[in-house]
Every structure is written in C-alpha cells, then in structure tokens.
Amino acid sequence: MIGVEQISRRGFFAAGAVGAAMVGVGGFGAVSRQADAAFVRPPGASSGAEVVAACDRCQKCLQACPYGIVTPVPLAESLVAYGTPMLSFRNGCCDFCMQCVDACPTGALAYGGPAERDLGVAVVVKDACVAWDWAGCTVCKDECPVEGAITLDDHDRPVVHPEYCDGCGKCEQVCPSASLRAYNAAASDRGIVVVSRASEAAQATGAVPSAELASKRTVAVPRGSEAAPHTKGVHPDGPDATREAGGIS
C-alpha cells in the first residue's frame, strides 16, 4: 500500500484561511477554478466543486481503500481542494469494491449517479509510450480488464476507446515506460495515464505529448462539455466480479 500524506489540523485550517483571503481580495474566480479542478476522484464522486463542498477531509476513504490508491490532493496542487480524495494508480488500480464509498460519512462519495462506476478515461502519452517509438510493447492492452477499451493501430501502438474505458487505472499501473525510458527526464513516467472526463486532457483524440498532458490534466472544461462516459463493455465490479457498462448496483 502506498504512503498517505497526513493532513494536519493546522494545515487544513491554513488552507481555508488562504482560500478566504483569496476571496477577500477579489480572488473568487481563482477559488472557483481550484474547486472545479479535474482530479481523478474515487468512485461515487460528483463534480470537483461538490466534492470540495461535501468532504470534511476525515481520510476515512483513504483508510478504507484496500489497494492504497486513494490519496489526498496535495496543498501544492490546490489550496481549495487540499485534502480531498483523488486517485493515484502508480501502485494499484480500482476494481470498484466501493469500500471508499461505504466509509464516506458526508456523501462526498455516494452510490447512484453517472460517476459511481466511471472514474475517467485513459490517455496515451506519445513521447513516453514505448510502443510509439519502438515495436513490441502491448502491456496496457494485454492487462486491460475491459475487452475493447484498448486496441492497437496499424503500427501496434495503443489506442483508447473512451466508450469502453472506465478509468480503472490498470493500464497506468502496469505501464513499463518509467523503467524503459529512464533516459528521457522530460517525458511522463507513464506512457498511458487516466484523466478525469471533466479535464481538457480528456478532450484529446489519439496520443498527446507529456507537456500537453501536464498543462491540461487537471484543467476543467465548462460544465456540460465533459467527455461522454463509457457505455460499452464488461467492467470490473468488485473483487472477482464483472458488470455490463452502465450497470448500477
């Protein structure tokens, strides 16, 4: 299980004070943008702003996750969203066991709604993906638990099909790019990553370079223009179980 950043009481209230100060000097727009930042959230999370409003930063979802992939938003990423839950797939992936939702006492994570079983969508990072330059790497396609979510093009490079992908993070977890491309410090450490469907990065078609991914990964698009959720395929639904796309338990 990955390490969890502990949020001090002082740090939490300091972040709140800074946010209040930003509003006081005319920074309401900046606060709103930070609240809407498109982080990849755990199952059952709605919009970024609604998570920020409902979450009391108790960390019960972090403690409940058996895979160690729920982690708090760092203060450096957002003053307003600091301490609210986001997902990191470096050491694990989500099988929608829903233990984080069960543990949430405030409704920031909840059953029902389009986000219950849809975390985001994978995006290929072309200057980090080994298959983009070299032939032979098909790890993300081979390990993807949803048939049809990742296929190969005519050059054996991965192609993500958003209508099948639910952002479980398995592809990002198993991508070997970090070790195979250690010589290129400018490239992302994964050749495929999961982004929120509400992010500008999710609007890209095909592969994107690392710099474009970094600039668009958490930048939210206007409400109502998010990438469409998955509608096809058989997806993970808890340990050793599956479900059809769109199925709600």
Automatic annotation (TrEMBL):
<dbReference type="InterPro" id="IPR017896">
    <property type="entry name" value="4Fe4S_Fe-S-bd"/>
</dbReference>
<feature type="transmembrane region" description="Helical">
    <location>
        <begin position="12"/>
        <end position="31"/>
    </location>
</feature>
<feature type="domain" description="4Fe-4S ferredoxin-type">
    <location>
        <begin position="120"/>
        <end position="155"/>
    </location>
</feature>
<dbReference type="Pfam" id="PF12838">
    <property type="entry name" value="Fer4_7"/>
</dbReference>
<dbReference type="Pfam" id="PF13187">
    <property type="entry name" value="Fer4_9"/>
</dbReference>
<dbReference type="InterPro" id="IPR006311">
    <property type="entry name" value="TAT_signal"/>
</dbReference>
<feature type="region of interest" description="Disordered">
    <location>
        <begin position="205"/>
        <end position="249"/>
    </location>
</feature>
<keyword id="KW-0479">Metal-binding</keyword>
<dbReference type="InterPro" id="IPR050572">
    <property type="entry name" value="Fe-S_Ferredoxin"/>
</dbReference>
<feature type="compositionally biased region" description="Basic and acidic residues">
    <location>
        <begin position="234"/>
        <end position="243"/>
    </location>
</feature>
<feature type="domain" description="4Fe-4S ferredoxin-type">
    <location>
        <begin position="156"/>
        <end position="185"/>
    </location>
</feature>
<keyword id="KW-1133">Transmembrane helix</keyword>
<keyword id="KW-0408">Iron</keyword>
<feature type="domain" description="4Fe-4S ferredoxin-type">
    <location>
        <begin position="47"/>
        <end position="75"/>
    </location>
</feature>
<keyword id="KW-0472">Membrane</keyword>
<protein>
    <submittedName>
        <fullName>4Fe-4S dicluster domain-containing protein</fullName>
    </submittedName>
</protein>
<feature type="domain" description="4Fe-4S ferredoxin-type">
    <location>
        <begin position="83"/>
        <end position="114"/>
    </location>
</feature>
<dbReference type="InterPro" id="IPR017900">
    <property type="entry name" value="4Fe4S_Fe_S_CS"/>
</dbReference>
<keyword id="KW-0004">4Fe-4S</keyword>
<keyword id="KW-0411">Iron-sulfur</keyword>
<keyword id="KW-0812">Transmembrane</keyword>
